[in-house]
């Protein structure tokens, strides 16, 4: 992932313009629009495309299942497991410390 902070912010801002939620809650998150950008073990939050007003509390990505009907993301939060359809949601993943360093390095490399 060769993105800079400016690119991360621009992508997130572009998506948030479509949604009816408070973008402040996603300040430390990056928008994930491709499956290869989603990291197992990372914390995700999402907005269902059928209800653009509700930001889900989220959870840690446990597993990604590719099924006939689409891609299912299995998450865990506290002692509860739940899943959502990747293709039907706007997904945001919390930026890890390692990603922070990479994005800063990419910023200086430009």
Measured between the Cα atoms of the first and last residue, the distance is 14 Å
Radius of gyration: 14 Å
Helical content class: 10-25%
Number of helices: 2
- As laid out across the biggest beta sheet, the strand order is 1-6-2-3-4-5
**Quaternary organisation:** single chain
* Percent in strands: 35-45%
Biggest beta sheet attributes = 6 strands, antiparallel
- Strands, total number: 6
What is the string of helix and strand elements?
Answer: HEEEEEEH
Report the average pLDDT across residues. 90
Q: What is the total number of structural domains?
A: 1
Uncertain parts: none
The structural class is alpha+beta
Question: So what's the overall shape?
Answer: globular
Structural descriptors:
110 residues; alpha+beta; six-stranded antiparallel beta sheet; 2 helices; 6 strands; globular
